Amino acid sequence: MFMNMEPDSCGVGWLASGKFGSSGTIETHDTMCVLAVNIINEKIYIFLWFWLVCLTAITAAWLIYRIVVIVSSDVRFKLLQARGRWAGRPNLDLISKKCNLGDWFLIYHLGRNMEPTSYGEFLKEFAKELENSVSTLERKPMLVGS
Fold it and tell me: Is residue 67 part of a domain?
């Protein structure tokens, strides 16, 4: 038994099937197949393809943004400045210089979840603490036994 399907552009195709007849030769039967389900599936897959292309573009842009934030301390400072304008530029300069990437990330997300004036006060107090504290490299771990 063999089948040959030659579809048009509209999802309609001719199906040629054959089987061995009573004399031992192949008898072919031509039938027309209307594949309405395939037409619907084709539209769904086209939509999904464009949707996934859009998601890929958005994900690539977000990944580039994250890489720029990780690499550039100037971008991190600008983002901190946009969130914490109530703290003042000298305090933000001090925080940017003394904090590493992980500290900045935590401080930035605190700013996303706090009221701007409260966040500005927090940054002012945090800058005072950083000014009076020892540098990050000289700090001792918290869980070291005495």
Answer: no
User: Are residues 19 and 26 in contact, defined by beta-carbon separation less than 8 angstroms?
Assistant: yes
For residue 109, tell me if it sits in a domain.
yes
In angstroms, how far apart are the furthest CA atoms of the chain? 103
| Shared domain check, 85 and 131 | yes
Contacts of 84 by beta carbon, 8 Å cutoff, 6+ apart: 92, 111, 116, 119, 120, 123
Q: What is the rounded CA–CA span in Å between residue 133 and residue 73? A: 22
User: Total domain count for the chain?
Assistant: 2
pLDDT digits (tens, 9 = 90+) for 11-62: 556 666 777 777 778 777 777 666 677 788 889 999 999 999 999 999 999 9
Residue 1 confidence (pLDDT) above 50? no
H helices present in the chain, as ranges: 36-71, 73-83, 89-98, 101-113, 116-132
pLDDT at 135 over 60: no
End-to-end CA, the chain: 85
Can you give the residue range of the structural domain that contains 98?
72-136
| Pairwise CA distance, residues 40 & 11, whole Å | 10
